[in-house]
Amino acid sequence: MPTQLLLRGGRLVDPAEGLDAVADVLVGADGAIAAVGDPAAEAGALEVPKGATVIECAEKVVLPGPVDVHVHLREPGREDEETVATGTRAAARGGFTAVCAMPNTDPAIDDGAAVRALLESAERDAAVRVHPVGALTRRRAGEALAEIGEMAATGAVAFTDDGSWLASSRMMRMAMDYTKRFGVPVLSHAEDPLARGGAVNEGEVSTLLGLPGWPSAAEETAVARDIRLCELTGCRLHVQHLSTAGSLELVRRAKAAGMPVTCEVTPHHLFLDETALLQRRYDTALKMNPPLRTSADREALVAGLTDGTVDCVATDHAPHAAHEKEMEFELAPYGVTGLETALPLLATRLVAPGTLSWADVARLLCHGPRSALGLPEVRLAAGFAADLTVFDPEARVEVGAGGFESRSANSPWTGERLLGRATEVLVGGKPVVRSGKVVA
Fold it and tell me: What is the distance between the alpha carbons of residues 365 and 440, in angstroms, rounded to a whole number?
């Protein structure tokens, strides 16, 4: 039988509630937050209800449930790389309470039956909430619209041909016009054919390594087109894994003009640049789509976090089997895992040095992504679902030590020592992580 949980003495951080103070949180047996202590009272203490379980949170940060809006669960089709069960356990370990699952599976998620199958799998196997994202076109082939209305009615929260660029401007306009009717956004995988064959960012590094270059213009051209189509149709547009200063500036101008445009950046584009390829030559753990860019691009993305241009940090969690990555750089697949390292990386590289506050982290991992994709709101306030994460910012963790919850281990951070780990994660009041261990 569910019991009440009292999170005692944590630092509650929720900018939507104007909250950054030490206080208690009481989670009711119904899975909702029953009460939050008054920070003005002594330590925000609540009385412990009879029979309640008490979780000590002193010196830890309590965040409203983080959500990753860009995750590849690989099910159906590549269960050797990841499944709903393993991918969502990885999300829970990383401190996420929800993920948005991309449609580039095999077969693609391009009709209502596929969305329903994913939701049934999530209901049966998932450790955290799963929000399906449907394909824009059938089989993601770019030739005919997918069953967008049927998928929206079944539970898809957004639409994209992620992993492939929808090259036809006419088809993209049709997709935006149609998707707008359902009040959900189109997600843009911005990759003009100018990128074709590219393995790393085009420039001095690609020349030194003798690898085919992927110009930044390939992304910026695509972003510019989709922003123009957003202006034409009025459809909400979310730009995925934005990687260049030029793309960021395009989004900044669109926002300034009042357009419904949002964007995400990934931890690997925030914390790595192309020079890492010179230090770790031909390391396929550094091959991703879009590629690592210049240090100036990386610095611009960090600035975009602080000035509000970037709406959210998303991992683009892309698991791959070990044998697929253990080959020549040009032949290896793009992508890295990220669910288990995103929050510790933000804590280590941006919060500890003072570049971001914990309120910024809550904005970028909880409220920003939920607003961009129209997901149910989560707050540290009575009446909201108890989706929350308790994070110990002082813990020292070596990435990969003890293995990953993900079925794949293609992380560029393996062996790095990072600050912080999620010690408790609740989804609908149910503990899915206890004392740092996934229990779902």
Answer: 22
As to burial, measured by CB atoms within 10 angstroms (0-12 exposed, 13-18 middle, 19+ buried), residue 215 is middle
- Interatomic CA distance for residues 184 and 235, integer angstroms: 8
Q: Widest CA span of the chain, in angstroms? A: 68
Strand partners, 425: 389, 433
Say if CB 157 and CB 184 are below 8 A apart. yes
Catalytic residue set: 316
Contacts of 10 (CB under 8 A, 6+ apart): 22, 23, 24, 25, 57, 58, 60, 61, 62, 390
Question: DSSP string covering 24-91, please?
Answer: EEEE-TTSBEEEE--TTSGGG--PPPTTPEEEE-TT-EEEE--EEEEE---TTT-TTT--HHHHHHHH
pLDDT at res. 357: 98
CA 326 – CA 376 distance, rounded (Å)? 40
Q: CA quadruple 59, 129, 18, 36: dihedral positive or negative?
A: negative
* Residue 146 identity: A
**Residues 1-20 pLDDT 10s:** 568 999 999 999 999 999 99
Q: Cite the beta strand spans of 233-309 per DSSP E.
A: 237-239, 261-265
- Contact by Cβ (8 Å): 133, 187: yes
Selection from 100, 136, 91 nearest residue 118 by Cα? 100
Number of other CB atoms surrounding residue 323 within 10 Å: 8
CA dihedral 369, 371, 375, 380 (to 10 degrees): 80
Tens digit of each residue's pLDDT (9 = 90 or more) over 262-290: 999 999 999 999 999 999 989 999 999 99
Angle, helices 112-125/84-93, rounded to nearest 10 degrees: 60
* Token couple for 295: 């240090």
Q: Tell me the pLDDT tens digit for each residue of 195-245.
A: 999 999 999 999 999 999 999 999 999 999 999 999 999 999 999 999 999
Q: Which residue has the tokens 């790393």?
A: 200
Burial of 385-424, coded b for 16+ CB within 10 Å and e otherwise, reads bbbbbbbbbebebebeeeebbbbbbbbbbeebebbbbbbb
pTM: 0.97
| Helix (H) or strand (E) segment spanning residue 438 | strand 437-438
